[in-house]
Amino acid sequence: MSIYIFGHTTPDSDSIVGAISLSYLKNQLGEDTTPTRQGELNPETKFILNRFGFKAPELKTTYAGERVYLIDFMERSQSPKDIDEATILGIIDHHKLGDLTTDSPLEMWVRPVGCSNTIVKQMFDYYGVEIPKDLAGIMMCAILSDTVIFKSPTCTKEDTKACKELAQIAGVEDYKALGMEMFTVKSNVLNATKEELVLRDFKDFNMGGAKVGVGQLEVVDLTVFDNMKDELFSAMQKVKDEGERDTVLLLLTDIIKEGSQLLVVSDSISKIERAFNINLDRNEAWLPKVMSRKKQIIPFLEKQF
Ligand code: MG
Ligand code: MG
Ligand code: MG
What we know:
The chain has helices spanning 13-28, 43-51, 116-127, 133-146, 157-170, 175-186, 194-200, 229-242, 269-276, 293-296, 298-304; strands at residues 3-6, 33-37, 58-59, 67-71, 87-93, 107-110, 202-207, 210-219, 247-254, 259-266, 284-288. By secondary structure, it is an alpha/beta fold. The chain folds into two domains: 3-184, inorganic pyrophosphatase (n-terminal core) (Alpha-Beta Complex), CATH 3.90.1640.10; 194-304, DHHA2 domain (Diaminopimelate Epimerase, Chain A, domain 1), CATH 3.10.310.20.
């Protein structure tokens, strides 16, 4: 039976491309694996797959009795509901140590780099497996996406090195221009409902018993959100109520100005204010230089909760 490889719920480009790239590598190494996804593709990921001629991995949300590799996550809150009934063969990730456990030994490639596909690139190099041109293209795009074209504080020298090598294999000379094209696609927020926007790149965390959901929208110009703030707040309130969350945050990240507008709907307002040393004005605050949920948001929230 085929082994399934998938990324987190509400998958981003790294999760989708990582499933495809890791599956290709594993198959070259003699395992029988299939890439899958836990949710719908976002517009950026669709653009990337189209650009290099890939189909979306198959949608699959239950894994009881299956053998699996996880890529780009290791949190229970971002896993399929029946993850405990699956056998986790391995985890390839670049996040903090999560709360999943296993009952047998597993393969782990976890490194503090900016993108899971940087780690997959290093695995290709480690095993001496050649990366096909088009696969290199989508892996390069995943790195550009996760590192916000190298601007995110999560970006390391290993990410830029991997990205440049992949660009060369893919035959893409101006990879930063392609990155900007990706983020322009990502900035189109007009033909989605406000709830879709809140959930487009959304992660739940269990913080000391409190369920905290954090969404992020990375755009090239924050004025696209003018006139839709009230509706975004209503959508956040709905997501908070329906998911019985303590807190829902939405980061509107301006990748050119390099900072984020934080929107807050929370039962723990004072904890949020303390976490970032801010005073919320109508449940909003500008966080200069903040681009990374993983590095600049989650650790400070965890301390307060
Ligand atoms: Mg991800
Ligand atoms: Mg990632
Ligand atoms: Mg991201």
